[in-house]
Amino acid sequence: MKIGELGRRTATKVETIRYYERVGLLPPPERTEGNYRSYAKAHVQRLSFIRHARGLGFDIAEIRSLLDLADQPERECEEVDRIATGHLEAVEEKIAQLEKMRRELARMVGQCRGGRVASCHVLEVLADHALCSTDHAPAGTPLLS
Amino acid sequence: MKIGELGRRTATKVETIRYYERVGLLPPPERTEGNYRSYAKAHVQRLSFIRHARGLGFDIAEIRSLLDLADQPERECEEVDRIATGHLEAVEEKIAQLEKMRRELARMVGQCRGGRVASCHVLEVLADHALCSTDHAPAGTPLLS
DNA sequence: ATGGACCCTGTAGCCGCTACAGGGTCAAGA
DNA sequence: TCTTGACCCTGTAGCGGCTACAGGGTCCAT
């Protein structure tokens, strides 16, 4: 199977597949005579795993660890659990953070009654944090991406 | 006021302030004889506005628009409202997405009963999306950052 | 005169892709 | 046989929003 076919089967762009290979998530496949990458079933499985994990928000390093662990079936799954639990906690924290933003934004927007910019509630609140009801995240808080 | 003092007053790193100037959020201040940036009160206000908006998750382009609008006090605040509402909706969508992740992660983790990697539920689910209860976001969905 | 705290510019790195540019390969049709 | 066009290759640069240097300059107190 060539890279385009693998991409179609896993809903992954060709460039993304090459990127995963470059960063060591997907092992380099055999090559054809014409230097095309040639994938087998195992690659479809591995890439599906990767995509699924990405869809759940795991980052590349975490996925690398998970794949390494999956390749050692005799080990205890403690570490797997630790990674998944840690990620779950990060997701929960981020939701909490976004909830704070949501509340404050809804309050700002809800108080807009039209009119001139000069008396715009949204701009007033942005200009003065003291007008905030909740203590939302400080600027620059990195959000999970 | 020099850049370090401005940073202290607004809880902003010096490099970040220079970055905001470079991308046109913060107007270039006067310079001293020794070529140091020299800020006045208006800059503190503007930077506070920027930091507050960043804290609420607005991106640089949105903040630039909001600042432009704030500089035209006679205009209707329609556009301000549109930007804020649009951002609120983006935040809500993202929360919904993270909720899906959270549910699926919690289910995965909750079913882990220890044991060997070979029979690890977390890895099984990641290897087979069909084992997911919910239809969480596909891989590669860009999350608001 | 010297040390150290601060400031300057410019550049490169982070993440997870995405999007080229500039070429090569391969199979089908004229 | 030649050509077309779909696919593939490598390498590099860009996105956002910073952050972190390197390599220098300025200023003030001792």
Describe the structure.
Two copies of one chain form a homodimer. Chain A is mainly alpha-helical and 145 residues long. Chain A folds into two domains: 3-70, Multidrug-efflux Transporter Regulator, Chain: A, Domain 2 (Orthogonal Bundle); 89-131, no CATH class. The first copy, chain A, has six helices and two strands; from the N terminus they run ααββαααα. The longest helix of chain A has 33 residues, at 78-110. The model of chain A has no long low-confidence stretch (mean pLDDT 90). Chains A and B meet through α3, α4, α5 and α6 of A and α3, α4, α5 and α6 of B. Chain A binds a DNA duplex (30 and 30 nucleotides) through residues 2-4, 13-16, 18-19, 23, 32-37, 54, 59-60, 140, 142, 145. Chains A, B: It comes from Sphingosinicella rhizophila. Chains A, B: This is Helix-turn-helix domain-containing protein. Chains A, B: Residues 1-69 form the HTH merR-type domain.
Q: Poorly predicted ranges of chain A (pLDDT <50, ≥5 residues)?
A: none
Count of alpha and pi helical runs of chain A? 6
Quote the CATH topology of the largest domain in chain A: Multidrug-efflux Transporter Regulator, Chain: A, Domain 2
Strand arrangement, major sheet of chain A: 1-2
By oligomeric state, this entry counts as homodimer
Estimated structural class of chain A: mainly alpha
Strand residue content of chain A: under 5%
Mean pLDDT of chain A: 90
User: What is the count of structural domains of chain A?
Assistant: 2
The amount of helix of chain A comes to: 55-70%
Report how far apart the termini of chain A are: 32 Å
Order of helices and strands of chain A: HHEEHHHH
User: CATH class of the largest domain in chain A, anyone?
Assistant: Mainly Alpha
Strand count of chain A: 2
**Biggest interface, CB < 8 A:** A-B, 67 and 67 residues
Tell me the overall shape of chain A.
Answer: elongated
For the sheet with most strands of chain A, the description reads:
2 strands, antiparallel
**CATH architecture level-2 label of the largest domain in chain A:** Orthogonal Bundle
Radius of gyration based on Cα positions of chain A: 23 Å
InterPro entries (chains A, B): DNA-bd_dom_put_sf (IPR009061), MerR-type_HTH_dom (IPR000551), MerR_fam (IPR047057), Tscrpt_reg_MerR_DNA-bd (IPR015358)
Organism (chains A, B): Sphingosinicella rhizophila
Domain HTH merR-type (chains A, B): 1-69
Keywords (chains A, B): DNA-binding, Transcription, Transcription regulation
